[in-house]
Amino acid sequence: MKLDILILVIAGNTEKTEVLEGSDNTKNVILQFMSNAKIGWDNCVDSTAPSVIIAQFKKQLLESKNRGTRVRIVTEITNDNLSYCKELMDLIDELRHLDGVKCNFSVSKTEYVATAILQKDQVVTQVIYSNAKGIVEQHRYLFGTLWNKSIPGEQKIREIEKGVKPDVIEIIKNSSRAHSLYLNIIKDSKEEILLIFPTSNAFIRQEKVEVIQSLIEAAEKHNVKVRILMPTHNVTEHSVQRLKMRKNQYRNGNIDIRYIEESSGTKATILVVDRKMSLVMELKDDSKTTFFEAIGLSTYSNSRPGVLSYVSIFESLWRQAELYEQVKEANMQLELANEQLKVHDKMQKEFINVAAHELRTPIQPILSTVGIIRSRKGNIKGQELDNSLDMIARSAERLKRLSSDILDITKIESHSLNLNKEQFNVIDVISNTVGEFKNQITKNNLNINLIFANNEDVIMVEADRQRIAQVVSNLLTNAIKFTKKDGGVVSIEVQKKAEGKEDGNQDVVVITVRDTGQGIHPEIFPKLFTKFATKSFQGTGLGLFISINIVEAHGGKIWAENNVTADGINKGSVFYFTLPIINSNRNHDQV
Amino acid sequence: MPRIRKDKNNNYNDKKRVLIVDDEPDLCTVLKMVLEDNGFEANSFEDPTLALKNFKADSYDLVLLDIKMPEMDGFQLYRKMKEIDSKVKVCFLTASELYYEGIRKESFCKEDKVDKEFFLAKPIENEDLVNQINKIMSSNIFEDQDN
């Protein structure tokens, strides 16, 4: 009571400012300050202060409250002082939070106390006291400023308790700081990283400062799904392919890359992590070689609306890139189809050209011979007449063959080549065909020895008799055609053979046609069984195409080789074809 | 300089001589018959190489040339024959669609002035063939060209 009066007297008369040492002195000064402040007082304290206040002045605060004294505190509420702050909030009028507050002072309408040394739960050992009007007013102003910058304590407590980080949008001017933040955000990612590179140079620069390596680690070690949008360019292709390879190589590797246009107008690297944080690094100068020189201002944000906007921009571009790829793919397919059409068109033209030539040529002898006979008014006799009639017959025969070939091609290409299958002895069919050819050879005085070598009398097949005869006839026609110039031997051979057991132990007959003619031209060999494969100037090149289709329709095979004789000389060609046979022995067993 | 040649007897009434080159034997036979029946002297070769070997300057008034032939096609043969006899008239006779319709636009024709020559399409009626050949014989396109 005595002291109280003394101070009042002092206050009334003189201003004083002093430093007080010792726990008793300091406590007394503070208690006196509290009791003097009838209306109320304000405090700005660091994060250790709440524990000291509770430990030392809890009782006095409660009394002040009951008296109706208004006490306000600005402090930094942290995880460590959370419980003290909550307790304080019940004892005082209002508690607010300010990040990183470092000062410790209290100010009433007339007095000021401050301390520089505070330790958790400990008493205050040194205070500065002042009732100087200037000092008091200065600190009242300081308090007001800090108070206005602070946020309600309840809000901060809620954020801490719910683990919510406060919404922050920070502008970063220093590129080194942007870089370390960049790597840290990637390192802390848990689920998803979205990244847009504005230019291929940006990719290269950031690859040099470990960004790509960090992404790989996030994807492969923490199973973070990484998606990258970037312009495509030769200089980055190698790195991109390496990333894509890793994706296939590591099951956890989860980096996806799509391409955007370099000129899309994006002038910033945009990073979004876990849909919670974004870092946008503006591109200042793309010509610079280092990351630190190239980037300008950066903005970091964890504010939801902003971050989600970036996510939405990213997703739109991502889908657009996919559509672009699809369009490109579709275009490529169209081009391919177009090429195929062109090839088809070319083949059609070729066919028309060949067919036209082959159709028109035999008409000439018919037309001319008929014209001659008519103009001579029957004055044509003997050998000349016979020759003329032969010429007409030959030409008509050629036209007949050609027309049936063209018809066959049409059937094959429209998949309507029907087989009239029956069971017959293939030896008979070959024998008949060979007979016809022998007659022709004799008739045309060809220097060809046609030999039919068969070890068996009966080899039964189920096939289209006429079609098989057609194949034999085609092969013999070719053999004779390419042998007749210098003369030689054409032989046909029939053999039974057990095919691979995996094919259901199906036996086949192999029919071999061998000649000693000019052999198969190397240019023709690879496309021997395709349409128009001919070097001959007489013939359409349709025979072998028809033959392979007939043989394959019967489940057989056809192939050819050039004949090499014992002395290594290439002489003539050999054609083989097979047909499945009806195995008579097995049939008997089954019966 | 007169371009319409006379034979060695300097006789205009002598038979005109035609050389036929066609790889189809029947065509050679039948064309030869048609031309002979119509007052020409005709010779034929199935093998273009052989035809060239036997070709001498001033021996024919006209060469009737097939185009699609093995080893040496009609155009190659045409060039070689023109080297031997620059004045000989040539008439191409072809059954080929491409050759007949497209050939005049091909570079060959531009380079070698084949468009000054004649093209006939197979098959052709005897009468038409004879008329065309007579027309070609009496034309003097080379003199026109010189003027």
What is the SS-derived class of chain B?
Answer: alpha/beta
Relative strand content of chain B: 15-25%
Number of strands of chain B: 5
Q: Biggest interface: chains and residue counts?
A: A-B, 26 and 24 residues
Low-confidence parts of chain B lasting 5 or more residues at pLDDT below 50? 143-147
| The CATH architecture of chain B | 3-Layer(aba) Sandwich
What is the overall shape of chain B? globular
User: What's the end-to-end separation of chain A, in Å?
Assistant: 135 Å
Order of helices and strands of chain B: EHEHEHEHHEHH
CATH topology of chain B: Rossmann fold
Major sheet of chain A, described briefly? 8 strands, mixed
**Oligomer class:** heterodimer
Strands in their spatial order, largest beta sheet of chain A: 1-7-6-5-2-3-4-8
Instruction: Please tell me how large the radius of gyration of chain A is.
Output: 51 Å
What integer is the average pLDDT of chain B?
78
In percent, how helical is the residue content of chain A? 40-55%
| Annotation, overall tally of beta strands of chain A | 22
Question: What integer is the average pLDDT of chain A?
Answer: 86
Please write the CATH class name of chain B: Alpha Beta
In helices, the fraction of residues of chain B equals 40-55%
Q: Please give the largest β-sheet of chain B.
A: 5 strands, parallel
